């Protein structure tokens, strides 16, 4: 690896102890970058529009940084405190946005989990060129995101 990075092995080992450490560092790097992009995407936005902005920021980051995104999914970010913290702020912001929509805490948590599954799964399929139909992938993403948003809107007040 040091040869590919064009650095000396001792320099590499000063920063990375083993392959698991490398995976962890790449994963944390990716989640921190993604968190920043998602949070910046909602400046000036509120409600469901803010949720959409965060989803598009996720999609853009994950499809523009395929290798880092793959590495982000290798490592369980909840196993160490730093990994847990890196996504806590994002989920907390999502929770606060959705709480203003008159949704129960349980509904909010289910929606956040559903949104995460949709985003990670959809991007994995895009990144692996797994869609064979000629329909626009972006239009399908928009369509799916709107279904999720409209579905949770129907849960308001319940």
UniProtKB/TrEMBL annotation:
Pfam hit, one: TetR_C_33
Domain of life the protein comes from: Bacteria
Coiled coil: none
Annotated HTH-type transcriptional regulator MT1864/Rv1816-like C-terminal domain residues: 54-145
Gene3D superfamilies found in the cross-reference section: Tetracycline Repressor, domain 2 (1.10.357.10)
Keyword NADP part of the UniProt annotation: no
Keywords assigned: Transcription, Transcription regulation
Name of the protein this chain belongs to: WHG domain-containing protein
Organism: [Clostridium] ammoniilyticum
């Amino acid at each position: 690896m040091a040869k590919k990075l064009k650095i000396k092995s001792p320099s590499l080992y000063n920063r990375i102890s083993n392959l698991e450490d490398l995976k962890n560092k790449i994963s944390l790097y990716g989640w921190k970058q993604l968190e920043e992009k998602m949070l910046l995407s909602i400046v000036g936005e509120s409600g469901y529009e803010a949720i959409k902005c965060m989803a598009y920021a996720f999609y853009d980051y994950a499809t523009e940084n395929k290798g880092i995104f793959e590495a982000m999914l290798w490592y369980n970010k909840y196993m160490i405190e730093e990994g847990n913290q890196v996504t806590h702020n994002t989920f907390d912001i999502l929770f606060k946005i959705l709480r203003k929509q008159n949704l129960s805490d349980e509904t909010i948590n289910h929606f956040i989990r559903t949104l995460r599954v949709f985003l990670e799964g959809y991007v994995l399929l895009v990144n692996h060129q797994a869609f064979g139909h000629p329909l626009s992938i972006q239009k399908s993403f928009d369509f799916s995101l709107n279904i999720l948003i409209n579905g949770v809107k129907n849960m308001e007040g319940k």
